[in-house]
Amino acid sequence: MTKKRVVTREFVLGLIVLAFMGYMSLTTQFSSRNGLFSMMLDVSPTIVGAIAMSLVIFTGNIDISAGTILGFVSFTAGQLAVDGIPMILFVPAAILVGMLLAGLNGWITVTFKVPSIVVTLAMNMVHLGFYATFLPNSGWIENLGDNFTWFGRGMFFGIVPYIFVVSVIFAALFIFIMKYSRFGKSVYAVGGNRQAAIYAGINPDSTVMKVYIVEGLLLGIAGLLKAMTRSDVLPSSFQGREMTFIAAAVVGGVNIMGGGGKLIGAVFGALLVYLLSTAMIYMGFQDYYQFALQGVIILVAVFITVTNFGAFRKKLTGNGPTREGS
Amino acid sequence: MHELTAKRAGFRVGVTYQLALFILLVFLVVLFGVIQPVFFYPDVLFNVTAIIGEIGIMALAMTFIITTGGIDLSVGYNLQLCAIVFGSVFARIHNVPAAAAAAVLCGTACGLLNGVIISRTRIPPLVTTLATMNLYRGISMIVAGSATYSGFPGSFKAISSTFLFGIVPIQFVYLLVLFLVFNLFYARGTLGRTLKGIGFNENVLVFSGINTKRTLLFIYTVTGLMCSLAALIYLGRLSAATTSMGNDLNLQVITAVVLGGTSIMGGIGSITGTFIGTLIIGVLRKGFTLLNFSGNIFNFTLGVILIIALIAFALLEERKKTRSRAKS
User: Fold this and answer.
1) What is the three-class DSSP state of A316?
2) Residue A154 covered by a domain
3) Which residues of chain B are within 8 Å of residue A288 when distances are taken between CB atoms?
4) d(CA A76, nearest CA chain B) in Å
5) Between 20 and 30 A from A181 (CA), which of A28, A69, B41, B154?
6) Is there a contact between A133 and B121 if contact means CB atoms under 8 Å apart?
7) Domain residues of chain B, as ranges?
8) Chain A interface, mutation test: which of B307, B308, B318, B322, most A Cβ atoms within 10 Å?
9) Residue A26 lies in a domain
10) pLDDT of residue B12
11) Integer Cα distance of B5 and A228 in angstroms
């Protein structure tokens, strides 16, 4: 057993996020009501999506089609809302669509033992083609009424959006599940060492399958949180969101090779990615700098995670951990 | 020329498979020809070989990478960046050779960056190239803004609008030459064996004293170079560089390689298969265009084909594995 460290990576990341926020509120309009409100509005779907992506990455897989699944989810919700179906029905229906699509990714990956990156990359194209070919107006729905947007636009005390509360609840729930439940431990085990997991009595295939379905559930929620803030839905606009989720996860210290990292890190990662892109907008950079920024963020973060700095530290100081664990 | 040495616990990309692929190709040509008789016209058939120039060249290099068990998701946006660099350099100095040199340099540098990260750090290829894909896309958007570069001189357009014997598109000739060169290295040289070795078990090669890092660096750089050549050929045909070109080429290139029988897990592969796979994609694209199907239906179909091919190969390998186990 290693002794419990107080200054974990996630702790440092949290401090960085706080310092960043402090700096931005001193130098910009960030801490005004509008700045904070739009942060909570924008970051909520990213938090839930980053948790979904992190769960998949924990098992050593990935989901490139996460963004386009969000598109299907929001289309389902929007179409049903236009048809006058009450929220109590269209929300579960949309989440179910997310679970089915993510479950399909998981099923193909597990059953045929094909790398998830290629399957989900192909799925990404299949989804995009599906929008344009089979959905009316490429899935574009406008003039959504209050029965759709009241939740996304509602807020407590005139400042805290409902959707932010939802995302915090789900974040807390999954942090708890991953830390204490049997399921959480088995997810880390499968990603860390598949063979050892099998010897410990864990069925890796069914674990990965379950993770994909849970991912679908979370993506369903993330898609709803994003869609319900607006009165129109365009599925293809969600393309590329998966990169934000992956960036948030790896910045949060989730090991892209699987088996390592914490969900609280992914939550901080989502905040940090949002803050960085907002800072760039305040600094007057165009929107398309985001692509380059996300690429660099992912590379740097993954480099830091997979490089064994423990050994380096040991060389310098003569002691220290040799490996960062989960 | 057939590649038969790639044994991996008894599996190989057999001549039978390549024959089946070829029959599929002929079947598709006949199918489209029956639906749309104009498809049988020689210039339409040869147009198929013109539109696959750029994906074919990238697919050859991609076969090297996938054989090692890696992948390069950045090829489409690398091509886009090269085209944008060509366009912006040409817009400033109006000199085709200088602009082409800049594009080739840019593509090779992008490939080199991928190679350095993949061979020198422990970051897996798929994550590296997923990140650099966004990086290259971002850079090309930063360079171009909303500009569209066009107005290239006829002497440049000639590199992909000339016809050999008045009918064979020149880019098909480039593709054939590159195919022969790549096949030579892949099937005959030590490079091919090293690549398959890396895909099968890299550690064994490292302990046999083979510098696998250098090989990996080399093939990713070559892929970058091929992307820049593909960009030039593509530009010669399209005659305008925009930030939307190359967006969906990734999937076409990967589908061509996987359809050609190269295992996505690494270790087995075939350049000939990739070549036939590329032709199949070209026939599909031309056929869909003639049937007035949109590009979205094409991408949708391609995605489905890729998934089916992956599943089919996985099942095939599984069956061979159980059979070889039953024998021993």
Assistant:
1) helix
2) yes
3) 138, 141-142
4) 20
5) A69
6) no
7) 15-327
8) B307
9) no
10) 53
11) 57
Write out residues 110-139 of A within 8 Å (CB-CB) of B. Answer: 112-115, 117-119, 121-126, 128-133
A202/B contact by beta carbon, under 8 A? no
In a domain, A326, yes or no: no
Find the CB nearest A299 among B117, B137, B139: B117
Of the pLDDT bands very low, low, confident and very high (cuts 50, 70, 90), residue A325 is: very low
Q: State residue B3's pLDDT score.
A: 43
Give me the domain span that covers residue A232. 9-19+31-306
Interface check A105 vs B, CB under 8 A: no
CA distances from B37 to A274, B30, B44, B288, B289 (A): 55, 9, 10, 13, 14
Does residue A88 form part of some domain?
yes
- Do residue B141 and residue A291 have CB atoms under 8 angstroms apart? yes
Is the pLDDT score of B224 beyond 50? yes
A209 close to B (CB below 8 A): no
- Range name among A19-28, A92-101, B96-105, B247-256 with the lowest pLDDT average: A19-28
Structural domain count of chain A: 1
Residue B254: per-residue pLDDT: 92
What is the rounded distance in angstroms from the CA atom of residue A72 to the CA atom of residue A78? Answer: 10
Q: What is the mean pLDDT of residues B243-268?
A: 87
**Cβ neighbours of A56 in B, within 8 Å:** none
- Per-residue confidence (pLDDT) for residue B47, from 0 to 100: 85
Yes or no, beta carbons of B134 and A129 under 8 Å apart: no
The burial class, CB within 10 Å (0-12 / 13-18 / 19+), for A316 is exposed
Domain B15-327, CATH: 1.10.3470
In this structure, what CATH number is given to the domain that contains residue A292? 1.10.3470
